[in-house]
Design a protein that fits this description.
This protein is mainly alpha-helical. The protein has nine helices and five strands; from the N terminus they run αβααββααααααββ. This is DNA-binding transcriptional regulator, GntR family.
Length: 251
């Protein structure tokens, strides 16, 4: 999938960035564009155009590509160039499996540890989510959704778990952004509210169950996406509504 100049309209130079921070700045801008699907799976990245847009040399862009490759967001193909990685249904199931293992146990623990201040902050976040959903501000909703889950993990003060969840969430972000219909957003907000109700009731089992259903919704929506836009996926696997993975039969 080739790109034109308009593909990089979201990039802009920042004169305040110090030379030693250029690669991190380029990485952040490209990662955000990939996570929010401004750069879709399969997009060939034009290094020269990115350099021009950001007003930087090729070195920080090359370093940014290497960092993004390590994070799983791009593929660097010798003699061919760098492309945004395709989605993989196998990866989606694996990432959801990891998140369930970490976040379901996290809310189970929180049912006995959640403070009134945390519960109030979660309520405020949910109210803001409903407001953004009513205004169809999807980028803002995505930020609030991530903040909600981050508050749950951060409140346990498990630094390594927080880093692991953030990494997995980032890799799932593209699929979530592309499947966040108004109906799914509304359902997700209701699930967040149910989680907080369970935490307030000190019902850890209920909180964990709601979290599991919430995360499994990602698989359901990716199932739909894999059928509607198979060109975004790099394997011959589809996730079916039952949540199972099956290999597509060749004709």
């Amino acid at each position: 999938m080739d790109t034109g100049q308009d593909t990089y309209a979201f990039l802009s130079p920042d004169p305040s960035i110090q030379r030693g921070s250029l690669a991190a700045h380029v990485t952040d801008q490209l990662r955000t564009a990939i996570m929010t699907s401004r750069l879709e799976p399969g997009t060939m990245l034009n290094k020269s155009e990115i350099c021009t847009r950001l007003g930087v040399s090729r070195a920080p862009v090359a370093e940014a590509f290497a960092r993004l490759q390590a994070e799983g967001f791009v593929d660097i193909l010798p003699q061919r160039g760098t492309t945004v990685t395709f989605l993989s249904v196998r990866d989606v199931e694996e990432l959801v499996f990891i998140r369930k293992g970490l976040e379901c146990h996290a809310v189970w623990l929180l049912a006995q540890r959640a403070t009134p201040d945390l519960l109030d902050a979660l309520d405020e976040n949910i109210a803001a989510q409903r407001d953004t959903a009513n205004k169809d501000e999807r980028d803002r909703f995505h930020d609030l959704d991530s903040a909600f889950h981050d508050m749950l993990i951060s409140s346990l003060s498990f630094r390594r778990i927080r880093a692991m969840v953030e990494s997995v969430r980032n890799n799932l972000s593209r699929a979530r952004q592309m499947t966040n219909t108004p109906q799914r957003i509304a359902m997700g907000i209701d699930e967040h509210a149910d989680m907080v109700d369970a935490l307030r009731a000190r019902d850890g089992n209920r909180a964990a169950w709601v979290m599991a259903q919430h995360l499994e919704g990602i698989i359901t929506e990716v199932a739909r996406l894999s059928r509607e836009r198979p060109e975004l996926f790099n394997d011959d696997i589809t996730i079916h509504d039952s949540g199972t993975i099956r290999r597509a039969l060749s004709s």
